[in-house]
Amino acid sequence: MTFIFLIIVPILVGLWAQMKVKSAYNQYVQVPSRGRITGREAAAAVMESAGIYDVEIVQCHGTLTDHYDPTHKRLALSQDNYQGTSLAALGVAAHEAGHAIQHKQEYAPLKTRMALVPITGFASQLLPIVMFGGFFMGFGPITINIGIAVYLVLTVFQLVTLPVEFDASTRAKKQLVGLGIIDRDELDGVTKTLDAAAYTYVAAFVSSLGWLLYLLAARR
């Protein structure tokens, strides 16, 4: 029952979240905004409103691969969001621009997440080794302790990520309406797209926390 509650349920929640974000995005990527402003133009406008002119906006491959790279000050948008004028495209583009604003304003949770990136990357590299060793050679004390350390890092990182993502979405919705990029009655499509994306971050946190609690229980 512990395994089902702490591991299986979070996995199912994660799958549901992925389906939710794909469903919302696929729906609102088909709904054009009245202003016909592209995602790239929206991202640029949002950043310029905050006095940001040194962030490069580029197009990247894939779907929902959009991200902001604070190290290189680069905002990458997938093709549909870079060139598209849909409510989904504008929401995602403005969300990523929100991260650029966080970076400029030295938003504390973003600074914390950036500081955690190196150790989180290292922990992520150890994770397959821990899981492989655990399933095929048994979860002994050493494997469990390493697993706890790995999932502790991942859980903290996912926890810090939540306010970063929620704040970026809040900024995006406010700026899109405030700058006149979308009308207020178009905000519903943007909100549903960004809220669905937020579920994936919540699911990732729940999954990491579930594994951490499970391994802590196994150590007793």
UniProtKB/TrEMBL annotation:
Keyword line: Membrane, Transmembrane, Transmembrane helix
TM segment ranges: 115-137, 144-164, 196-217
UniProt entry tagged with the keyword tRNA-binding: no
Keyword field contains Lipid metabolism: no
Xref: InterPro entries: Zn_peptidase_2 (IPR007395)
Taxonomic superkingdom: Bacteria
Pfam name, any one: Zn_peptidase_2
Protein's recorded name: Peptidase
Organism whose genome encodes this protein: Coraliomargarita sinensis
